[in-house]
Amino acid sequence: MIDSYKHKGLRKRLVSTVKGKGINDENILQAIGKIPRHFFMDSSFLEFSYQDKPFPIGSGQTISQPYTVAFQTELLNVKKGDKILEVGTGSGYQACVLIELGAKVYSIERQKKLFNKAQKFLPSIGYRPKLFYGDGYKGLKAFAPYDKILITAGAPIIPDDLLDQLKPGGILVAPIGKGDVQIMKKVIKDNNGNFIEENHGAFRFVPLLINKAND
Ligand code: SAH
């Protein structure tokens, strides 16, 4: 795969688009400017790679819109060295953004095909999140607790297991809602184990699924 001047130019434009929509964190903008998003998509869709839109990645799933990736990342308030659990690896793009910010990333995907693809592809471009095939509703107890937890699919409720796996002082960001539209929630676990919940607008995500897929 080639990352040409043309791709780099399109990426610069994407960064200004995302900035224009209100993302101010320079580190996040730099990560978007650095990661070759077209590598994460089928080569026949190259011309769509640097539009600020979600896009199908197979198995009925999508790579999130860059603005949404940036918005969720900003809400997470990522610090260097943070241990972050991502639910919904998908293409792996979001995991790479978190790695660029200095996080140690654990990511779960329930679609075997997408898991296998990410497992092969991400190290080939120099990113090494720890990837797991499984059900993100349960989180990943073996490596808990986490500084931050990010759900990248629309969940009907915030799974209790995930709240349990958050450190005191930790942050969970997730689009929550039962229908097509979800509300972006930021949940902060205080040092006494109480939760403070904030709402950050409406978004549309593919659903977080409970039953195993036919893959
Ligand atoms: N973060 C991804 C976007 C993911 S789309 C990216 O950057 O490309 C949401 C992903 O969540 C899909 O890949 C979907 O298969 C996965 N998913 C859905 N339900 C899940 C579950 N219960 N556990 C783990 N992953 C799940």
Q: What is the element layout, followed by pairings?
A:
Blueprint: H1 5-20, H2 26-34, E1 55-58, E2 61-63, H3 66-76, E3 83-87, H4 93-100, E4 104-109, H5 112-124, E5 130-133, E6 146-151, H6 160-164, E7 166-176, E8 182-189, E9 195-203
Parallel strand pairs: 3-4, 3-6, 4-5, 6-7
Antiparallel strand pairs: 1-2, 7-8, 8-9
Helix pairs in contact: 1-2
S-adenosyl-L-homocysteine is lined by residues 61-64, 87-88, 90-91, 93-94, 108-111, 114, 135-137, 152-153, 206, 208-209.
Distance between the termini: 27 Å
Gyration radius from CA atoms, angstroms: 16 Å
| Poorly predicted ranges | none
Q: Which bin fits the share of residues in helices?
A: 25-40%
Strand tally is 9
Q: Which architecture name of the domain at 65-203 does CATH use? A: 3-Layer(aba) Sandwich
Q: Could you provide a short overview of the structure?
A:
The chain has 215 residues and is α/β, with parallel strands linked by helices. It has six helices and nine strands, in the order ααββαβαβαββαβββ. It is globular, with a radius of gyration of 16 Å.
Key terms:
globular; binds S-adenosyl-L-homocysteine; Rossmann fold; 215 residues; alpha/beta; 6 helices
How would you describe what is shown here?
The protein is α/β, with parallel strands linked by helices. It has a domain of 139 residues: 3-Layer(aba) Sandwich (Rossmann fold). It contains six helices and nine strands. The strands form two sheets. The protein has a seven-stranded mixed β-sheet. The protein has a two-stranded antiparallel ribbon with strand order 1-2. Helix 1 packs antiparallel against helix 2. It is globular and about 50 Å long. It starts with a helix and ends in a 12-residue tail after the last strand. The relative contact order is 0.13. The mean pLDDT is 94. It binds S-adenosyl-L-homocysteine (SAH). The site of S-adenosyl-L-homocysteine has 23 residues, from strand 2, helix 4 and strand 4.
